Amino acid sequence: MTTVSRTPDGADEHLPFSPLVADVLTSMFTQTAGITNTLLDSYQATIDDLEAERYAVQYGIDQLLAGPWMPTPDAIRDAVFYPRQDLIDEYKARKAADR
Fold first, then answer.
1. In this structure, what is the dihedral angle of CA atoms 58, 63, 66, 69, given to the nearest 10 degrees?
2. What residue spans define the domains of the chain?
3. Distance CA 13, CA 18 (A)
4. Which residues contact 64 (CB under 8 A, 6 or more apart)?
5. 71-86 tens-digit pLDDT
6. How far apart are CA 52 and CA 95, in angstroms?
7. How many CA atoms lie less than 13 Å away from 78 in the CB half-sphere?
8. Which pLDDT band, with edges at 50, 70 and 90, does 65 fall under?
9. What's the pLDDT at 9?
């Protein structure tokens, strides 16, 4: 199916689809690209948060295991489930500076 369109100089132009369809398709592609970029940014923020938390947990565990004594279960639990927020913030700041 083709659509006949008139150019400004009055000539007939045969298009594979109407200009309205072209506008709709262009709009759809633009919106899809915007949504895709928003999702990618969200996924990257989630990855950054998880990497920062993993860094803080690793640091806490390393500190516990570096001592000459056996860490208590409470100390291990605190290191794993309640990582230090300052380490998380430090990691995120370094990652943002690298970009």
1. -120
2. 3-98
3. 11
4. 71, 75, 76, 79
5. 999 999 999 999 999 9
6. 9
7. 10
8. very high
9. 66
Kindly report the length of the chain: 99
Q: Give exposure, 12-26, as e/b (b: 16+ Cβ within 10 Å).
A: eeeeeeeeeeeeeee
* HEC letters along 33-88: HHHHHHHHHHHHHHHHHHHHHHHHHHHHHHHHHHCCCCCCHHHHHHHHHCCCHHHH
pTM over 0.70: no
Residues 48, 46: Cα–Cα separation, whole Å: 5
